[in-house]
Each structure stands twice: as C-alpha cells, then as structure tokens.
Amino acid sequence: MRILVTGGTGYIGSHTVVELQQGGFEVVIIDDLSNSYAGVVDNIEKITGVRPGFERIDLSCEEKVMDFFLRNNGISGVIHFAAFKAVGESVEQPLKYYRNNLLSLINVLKGMEMHGISPIVFSSSCTVYGQPDMLPVTENSPLKKAWSPYGHTKQVSEEIIANTASVTQINSILLRYFNPIGAHDSALIGELPIGIPNNLVPFITQTAIGKRECLSVFGNDYNTPDGTAVRDYIHVVDLAKAHVTAISRLMKSENRQKVEIFNIGTGNGFSVLEVIQSFERISGQKLNYRFAPRRPGDIEKVWADTALANHVLGWKTEKNLDDMMASAWKWEKSIRGKYE
Ligand code: WQD
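Above: inputs. Below: predicted complex with WQD.
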C-alpha cells in the first residue's frame, strides 16, 4: 500500500510518515521545502530504518503534479498536509495563501481523479469553528466566518473536497486538528519553526534554552479560570496516529459517507499558564514570562468533543500535557545549535 504524503517533511507530516511506515505502509513524500528541511527524510529513515520516497515539487504547479502522478501510478491513497499555515502571515499576504493552499489541493485532487485514486485524508483545523458558542465543540458546530485567510483556506478546502467527492470516486476524511505540540520520543523529528515562533510551545522551549529573552503571555483578562486563553493541546504523535487510522478506514471502505469529519483533540482545555506550569514541572526550571496585551485574531477558549473520533474512527489520545511538554523540551535540547 503506497501512500502519497504531501507536506511530509513538515512537523505533522514527518511524524505521520513515521507512523505510516511503522504501520506497514510504503510512503512517498512531496514537499516544496518552503517551511521544512530535506534532512528530515534522513531522520525519518534513522527512526524507522526505511527511507521514504521524496520529491521536491511545488504542488501549485499543475504540470508538475500531473507528471508526478503519471510517473507514480502505484499510489493507493493520499494524506494532504501541504499548505502555508502562519495565521499572521496569511493576514498580511492573503493571495499567497489562497493561491498556494487552494491550487495545491486542486492539483492533488485532479491527479487523484485522473488516476482513479479514492482515499484522501485532509489536514483541516479547529480554526474553522472560530470562537464556538458552545464548548466542547462538536463536528456539527456551525462554522463561523474565518478569522484569517489561513482559516478561510481550510474552510474552502473542505468544501472543495466535499463537492469533488460527490461527483468522483474520491472518498475523504477531514481531520480538524486542535493544537499539535511536542515531538517524537527519538528527538530526531519535531517542530522546526523558521525564525521567531508564532506558536506557544516552541516559544516556551526557546525561551527556556536561552534563544528568546522572555515569553509574552498574550492576554490575562479572558473569561477563563486564570484569565489566560484556553486551547486543546494534542501530542503530535497521537495526532499522527489518527491519520494512519483514517487512511486505513478509507482503504478498507469502512467510511459511512463519502466525506467524514472528525475533531482530533484530547477533549481537555488547558490555559497558557497551565502549559507554562507543566513545562516548569517537567523541566525543573522557572520560565521567564510576562503578561502582554491580547494577540489580535486570538479566540478565548476552545476544546474538542472527541466522541466521534473515539467511537466511530476508533482513535483516542494516549499522551497527557506533561508528556507533551517533556517531549518538546527534549527536542529543543537536541536541536540546540543546529538549524540556526
Ligand atoms: C496558543 C495560545 C496564544 C504564543 C494556531 C492556529 C491553528 C494551528 C495552531 C495551524 C494562544 C498564546 C502564543 C506566544 C502566547 N495552526 N500565545 N504567547 O493560535 O491557538 O492556533 O496554531 O494549523 O490553526 O490558529 O496556537 O500556539 O499560536 O497560541 O501567549 O508567544 O498561546 O495567544 O492563546 P493558536 P498558538
């Protein structure tokens, strides 16, 4: 069973390639390396002993994507991660995001349609819900107007997939991630933010290791127990395993609709301060942080209702917050001095 993983040298993609290979799948990666490094392929091989196929292709180029599918006619399924994902950058450069994220998906779907490939697992995001009215948020919760072009590309991508599946052989599972954090136990792969991290956990570990001076906690006046914003943090390995479960479900035709949607979170919400306290607990060191104004575009609180993923998809998380923070800290220490 050969699976195409687009964006497979990225953070979630690389962890998913490892789990796919350890689940017996053959993998070929397409990535444009715009937000990752080719050396990730070497580290995947170090973990699993098997080198995945790799081609550096810009998926927004239709000709190159069609050529790939012509040369690789043994693809049984696709897991599509490839997309730009910096929320703030998407606000400043919307066309860059709409062009890349939507054209890449369209070209992959066209290649699948032309070659009779059915299963695709799509990397979606809880950002499609905006600030839910009710918590925990379920898959039937209304989608609100996206707070960024990035979030909008995820909403539009879901609709592109649904409308294409309804008139082709394509079947899809949309996984709506909450907040992926942490790293593989080997500390050979993990989150590699280029430049100043947007996300909380890499900023915490870079502050702790001395790369950053001080963590700014964006807002402590939210309507939450300690005033800081709440998110559903999920270990990236738990998230990767959900993709293996999902592609297997499609390949065995166990899906009940042409398009199925699952929230992939832990079902627990943690505040920024609770994440900091977890880090201090597992590392044994105090973190240097200060309270700062709220970050524009942030929602106050969100966590997942995971009943569908648990009982229909047959997947659930295994790692807790301390596990996640311990793996993130181990990873930060392992890359110290590299990737500058
Ligand atoms: C988490 C919390 C911040 C940095 C985004 C995307 C989502 C997904 C994950 C791609 C918030 C606070 C952060 C800092 C802070 N991306 N924070 N100081 O914004 O929930 O989700 O990334 O798929 O789609 O929307 O994640 O890690 O940026 O922020 O206080 O230096 O930490 O305000 O409350 P977010 P995040």
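The first helix runs from residue 11 to 22.
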